[in-house]
Specification:
The strands form 4 sheets. Strands 2-1-6-3-4-5 form a 6-stranded mixed β-sheet. A 6-stranded mixed β-sheet has the order 8-7-12-9-10-11. Strands 13-14-15 form a 3-stranded antiparallel β-sheet. Helix 2 packs parallel to helix 22, helix 7 packs antiparallel against helix 21 and helix 18 packs across helix 20. The relative contact order is 0.12. The radius of gyration is 22 Å and the shape is globular. By secondary structure, the chain is α+β, with helices and mostly antiparallel strands. Helix content is 40%, strand content 13%.
């Protein structure tokens, strides 16, 4: 099987059994692999309306057709499950080295079923698969877990959860290579519920390549394109994703104090330029990545740790009105070690700060914790992050996320979420196309599954007026479908800084065979997006959930270059549904499902 390894590993944790099943190549190609194939498995195998934290929910870890292949940025894998944060589909992506090493074991997918009676971890070495005791690992951080397993099993790469996943926080992440995260949607809580602490992999299998000479040539061409691109070959390798801090702020779309403001004159204190000058230790690239945006930075005591991404810098920084890199780096390190989604964690603290500011949270509720909830208190942000990870004191309430927190005080409008998932670091009032991608995103508040910042701010593939509405819905649909392609084949979305749809066709066909052209590959991404939508419809998540927080629709931006603007979702949403081939209620039509080969799932459009 060119590109694909041809094996699905099914692990029943309840019975402690493992079974290898053949991969259906036709199905894998139709859904591309990874994200698409994982959603297909969820639809076919998980009954409707199961509780996310239950034995009936499944946890799927999947590599793409190009994961581990000799093409640029091929280190990605996906985690797919039903989200305990949102109740919607969870599709969390991560890079580093683990995904490629998993593929080398000779498997494309792991399906975890049931629940172990005590903590276990899975060890895969080619055809050897063992469910091992992990009682001694329970309670350990990501680095402690990784180091303990590496000492026991030489040469493995480790994926694991930290204490936040064990304690079932709906914002818990799954960590690999210590500081890489499949972060969003609470996937770590599902792993924790199943008493699955880690997955250790070691393999010697080679990926079959359809045309090795062609693949080599195509790869060289794409690497050259990326290296010569001003963002992929300039800004990102030089400053990491923190290169965005000043750029986003200068456009007036940097959310400050829980989206109460959208610009700060202190942004340079937490910029990529400042990180590089004062905190950078070295770059930390993912597998086969010429971009090398990953960072290793130093804490205040000089300890080297994984560096924060732009969204992390924002969530613990401007969103909490904190402009101190030592504090931000420490919060990021805590999230990596304890396994928390950095976006949801920082944004939840920001929401709590606003709830405190407006009198909803009283002093007596947080007195025993010895921490404040005042804007700009860097020590409090660090302290609450740790307490959220361990569910200590008021941190136990924060660990449920900003929506449940704000709702408990009768003020859900203070939670800056879509489908109960916290919005990331871009104020949609100043990027209208990006706002529609937030509202309709299948996994809730998310920037990375349809990154309209590319055309609206950075000019890829062309520069659009960020405040204009015309054509934005169609553009957003294309970005959604293209990102579904990139995720599903196992590449990084940062490769879109330089590469476009024809480049992904070139790479897929060189590795897997001449299967797709531009039109049909993008249609495969559309198929994946629609299948996710059908999953959500089945779970009761309909168009009433395709919305933005009230603040972003009704309260004009109060400062900076976007002052006076709101988001015009009322105009963009009907247009998005139309270009999607959905009806006015946001439901795929039968004609759309037939065109995409999803006829088997028609029953879910009537849920």
């Amino acid at each position: 099987m060119n590109g694909y390894m041809g094996k699905i590993l099914r692990v029943n944790l309840t019975n402690r059994t493992t079974k290898v099943e053949p991969l259906d190549l036709e199905v894998a190609q139709k859904y591309l692999g990874s994200r698409g194939l994982g959603v297909k498995i969820m639809m076919d195998e998980v009954p409707a309306n199961v509780e996310p934290l239950s034995e009936e929910n499944k946890l799927i870890i999947a590599a793409g057709a190009l994961t581990g292949a000799p093409v640029p940025t091929s280190g990605r894998y996906m985690v797919i499950t039903k989200s305990p944060l949102t109740g919607a589909i969870a599709i969390a992506n991560s890079g580093g080295q683990w995904g490629a090493k998993f593929k080398a074991t000779g498997h494309d997918v792991i399906i975890f079923e049931g629940k172990a009676d005590k903590p276990v971890y899975l060890y895969i070495e080619d055809d050897k698969v063992e469910i091992r005791d992990a009682t001694y690992l329970w309670g350990k951080t990501a680095s402690e877990t990784t180091e303990a397993i590496e000492k026991e099993l030489e040469g493995v790469k480790v994926l694991c959860i930290g204490p936040a996943g064990e304690k079932l926080s709906p914002m818990a992440a799954i960590m690999n290579d210590i500081d890489r995260a499949a972060g969003r949607g609470g996937v770590g809580a599902v792993m924790g519920y199943k008493n699955l602490k880690a997955v250790a992999v070691k393999g010697t299998n080679k990926i079959n390549i359809f045309d090795e000479e062609r693949t080599k040539k195509v790869s060289q061409e794409k690497v050259k394109t990326l290296i010569e691109d001003p963002v992929a070959g300039g800004g990102l390798p030089t400053y990491g994703s923190a290169v965005l801090v000043n750029i986003i702020n200068e456009n007036g779309v940097m959310p400050v104090k829980n989206f109460q403001e959208s610009y700060t004159d202190k942004a340079d204190l937490i910029s990529g330029e400042t990180m590089t000058e004062k905190y950078l230790v070295r770059k930390n690239p993912c597998f086969r990545c010429p971009i090398a945006c990953g960072r290793i930075v130093k804490l205040a005591d000089g300890t080297p740790v994984g560096g924060p991404e732009y969204e992390t810098i924002w969530s613990f920084g401007a969103d909490c009105d904190v402009y101190d890199y030592d504090a931000i780096n420490e919060c990021n390190m805590i999230c990596n070690e304890y396994g928390l989604d950095t976006i949801s964690t920082g944004a939840t603290i920001a929401a709590a700060m606003e709830l405190y500011e407006k009198g909803y949270i009283k002093d007596e509720e947080i007195l025993a914790d010895g921490l404040s909830l005042k804007w700009g208190d860097k020590n409090a942000v660090v302290g609450w992050t740790k307490k959220m990870a361990l569910r200590e004191g008021f941190g136990d309430k924060l660990a449920e996320g900003s929506y449940r927190l704000a709702e408990s005080y009768g003020a859900p409008e203070i939670s800056m979420t879509v489908k109960k998932q916290e919005l990331p670091a871009y104020d949609p009032r100043g990027v209208q196309g990006h706002g529609i991608t937030y509202a309709v995103n299948n996994r809730g508040g998310c920037h990375i599954k349809g990154y309209m910042i590319n055309p609206e701010i950075l000019g890829y593939p062309e520069k659009l007026d960020r405040l204009a509405l015309e054509g934005k819905a169609a553009y957003a649909k294309t970005f959604h479908d293209l990102t579904a392609v990139i995720d599903s084949i196992g590449l990084c979305v940062f490769s879109t800084f330089g590469l476009g749809l024809p480049d992904y066709v070139d790479m897929y066909n060189a590795v897997c065979g001449d299967i797709y052209n531009d039109e049909t590959l993008l249609e495969a991404g559309e198929r994946v997006w629609n299948l996710e939508k059908l999953f959500n419809l089945r779970e009761g998540i309909d168009s009433s959930h395709d919305k933005l927080p009230k603040r972003l629709l009704e309260e004009p931006v109060v400062n900076g270059p976007t002052k006076g603007h709101v988001h015009h979702l009322d105009k963009l949403l009907p247009e998005y549904y139309a270009v999607r081939g959905w009806d006015e209620k946001g439901i795929p039509t039968e004609e759309t499902l037939e065109r995409l080969g999803l006829e088997a799932y028609k029953k879910y459009i009537n849920c």
